[in-house]
Amino acid sequence: MKIVALFFPKASIGTYLVAMAVAIALPIFAFVTLLLLQLEDNQRSTLRRETAQDALALSRIVDRQLQDMATTLRLLSSSPELENGNLAAFHQRTETALRDNTLFVIAVDRNGQQLLNTRRAFGTPLGEIANTAALQSVMTSGRIEASDVFRGRTSGDWVYNVTLPRKNDPVAALIITQDAKDLGKLVTTEGLAPGWSAAVIDQSGHVVAATGPTDLEPGMPFDPRILPAFTAPRGVFQDETILPHMLLGYARIPGWSWKTVIWGPIAQASILSTWRFLIIGGVALVLVAVLAAYAVARQVRTTIRDIAEMANRMGEGHIVSPVETSVIEANQVAIALSNASFDRSQTEDRLRFVMHELVHRTKNLLTLAQAMMRQLAKQADSVETFQAAVADRLDGLVRSIELLTSEQWGGVSLRRVVDIHLQAFPQSREQIDIIGEDFVLKPDAVQNLGLALHELATNSVKYGALSVPQGRVRFEWHDVKEEDRPDALLRFTWEERGGPPVVEPSRSGFGSTVIKAHAASAFRGTVQVDFLPEGLRWVLTAQRAMLERD
């Protein structure tokens, strides 16, 4: 303590401000040149790091595209039409699903003979695929791979393939192909400095897609002098002989054989040319600070004391009023302290309310989950069946909760609720007609209606109209008026047509409980389920006030 008191004796704030200004001035003269040199080096390091990060960001964009294509292949591989060998129906379904995309699907046998190609009408004579080497690599590895860029026989343009091997015959592999120019739309130099370029390179070192001032086209080889330097997952390459006054960043696309690269000129002004000006300006600013420090100190001291008094009162739990001083920043602090004291009181009330709501909603969700698992446990004949049933129902419940959370539990539009639950069945989405005027549902109605919709769609995909390509479903809601009911009513109708013959189930399961008893109870309405010969018909009539948010 004596040593501290020797160097920091009791003194006024003015004395310490002057001493601080002098202490700042002395090292400035000694280190200014070193700091300027270090700043220049830091800027170069920052440029290298940002270049590598930009290449990584581009690799993530391309990886997302390849992953989406791989996911589409997995979904298509398990389609009923393909499993049943109905290639014509599979061609029609796939062509319809990908109509708005730039992707095309090819089914081939083990020798590379095309069985169908959505670029051509089904039944058109097709030959072998152009890139049989990529097919053999996939069949050997047994996993999804992206091919090198090559000239497609059917399209005549530069294309690339993402191939999924299958163990079934005659379709030994499914391929999604895309023109390289369409992938090039994702390769952008937005956010990069002028004069920079970007490209995607395949495993053999050829350009898949590129953009920027360079003249690289799909299929062109990238500079072979640079490719051997791409040893790390990501990094930078700089060589004044190969790329004079330029910097190149690269990144491997995780899980794929491709790489992304960006490169461009280095435009960095030297800092050393301004060192004299900075030193002179620094000295002048320090002198002004020393002269002004003492004059400011007295006013600052009074202001600090007033602010400290406010803070003490706030710490005691009082709502404090802001003090008025001649220092604008101090006035802002005083106002902030005053607002904080008021906000703290409001926050305490809000926390109590949030805790109450959290406990209430948690209890409701746990009660619903417990009831769901009890019902499913009674019907399941094995642990695997029980797990699959619980996972499917919980997925429907999670979709509703995610919607409500995104809206902070303030309600969700009916259209969004319908869309989010039907997204679980993408191959059947175009078979469903949705008719009705949109409005905002209450949080409880989002969960309960979501459960019913999920059960109806799941049942239809398994046994009803959505289990066959020609089946149709009409989901409609509208207002109804009844003479003995003065309150407004809503009627929801789920009607199926064109499916397999309908047979009324011999026993009632959990799904029947959800669409009948649970739906009627949750909305204080009535539910009618008819197993008509032409298809299932489900009708819910409920009070509009039980569904619509005020």
From TrEMBL:
Its EC number is 2.7.13.3. Pfam families: HWE_HK. The keyword Phosphoprotein applies. It comes from the Bacteria. GO terms for molecular function: ATP binding; protein histidine kinase activity. Residues 357-438 form the Signal transduction histidine kinase HWE region domain. The chain crosses the membrane at residues 16-39, 277-297. It catalyses: ATP + protein L-histidine = ADP + protein N-phospho-L-histidine. Keywords: ATP-binding, Kinase, Membrane, Nucleotide-binding, Phosphoprotein, Transferase, Transmembrane, Transmembrane helix. This is histidine kinase.
